[in-house]
Design brief:
249 residues; binds SN-glycerol-1-phosphate
């Protein structure tokens, strides 16, 4: 449980972490050297690898090429039970607890469980909560679920508490890739105050300022994808904005 232990330790020490989301469909193999060099320089803490819909068969290649070049942990962020690979280090075993689609609450897990049980992957159960980000997202369409309304903090809080009491190890508040509105700072604060397990926040975080306000509100791990696909130099600034919120040791 090396990855989860590192997340728990950081949560206890109030150290903030940065996860860079790689969508294998948009991964440019010819730019992997540049991407990994920037990630290492920025002290990116984790790579999340996955997407709601992967249309190219490139997941294994993407993981292999990154792994050859650095030892930043690679965590699968699967949009479906076919997005599995032994080449990663761990997997967010996501249960879409904001939705009422039984397949994404337990059905896909039953299918993937025997594979994961014998795999070397570190399995980290995670309550995944979609929050309305002001635009219809691929994940909301593909999952056939409604996100939690942007301003309904009470629903988010009760859902997160239920996830924690069910034994899930982390909660992920996601406004969805390319969200127009990020998960609000007040919702993050409310959820943070209600649970003890680590809290991941992502979706629509496009600037260092937004990333920093999310960690100040209580997020332990910030996930950024889209913005960095557009401008990879943002990795350095966003990482800095997140890591400087951690207490100086
Ligand atoms: C989506 O939280 C992630 O699941 C990241 O979103 O691509 O908008 O950064 P962005």
């Amino acid at each position: 449980m090396a990855i989860y232990q590192s997340i728990l330790r950081a949560n206890k020490d109030r150290e903030k972490k940065f996860a860079l989301l790689i969508d294998p469909d948009k991964f440019q193999l010819h730019r992997v050297d540049e991407l990994v060099a920037l990630a290492v320089q920025a002290r990116v803490d984790y790579f999340l690898v996955g997407g709601s819909l992967i249309v190219n068969n490139i997941l294994d290649a993407c993981l292999t090429e990154i792994k050859k070049r650095c030892d930043i942990p690679l965590i699968l962020f699967p949009g479906d039970s076919y997005q599995l690979s032994y080449r990663a280090d761990g997997i967010l075993y996501l249960s879409l607890i904001s939705g009422r689609n039984a397949e994404l609450l337990i059905g896909k897990h039953v299918i993937s469980a025997p594979y994961l049980k014998v795999s070397p992957l570190e399995v980290i159960s995670c309550g995944y909560m979609l929050i309305d980000g002001g635009v219809a997202t691929t994940v909301s369409y593909m999952s056939n679920t409604q996100p939690i309304p942007h301003d309904k903090e009470d629903i988010a809080v009760c859902t997160a508490i239920a996830g924690e009491m069910l034994g899930l190890k982390m909660i992920y508040l996601d406004a969805g890739s390319g969200a127009r509105k990020t998960v609000s700072d007040s919702m993050i604060e409310a959820v943070r105050g209600a649970i003890d397990i680590p809290l991941i926040v992502g979706g629509g975080i496009t600037t260092p300022e937004k990333a920093q306000s999310k960690v100040k509100a209580g997020a332990d791990i910030i996930v950024v994808g889209n913005a960095i696909e557009k401008d990879s130099s943002l990795i350095l600034e966003i990482a800095d904005a997140i890591h400087t919120v951690s207490p100086v040791v």
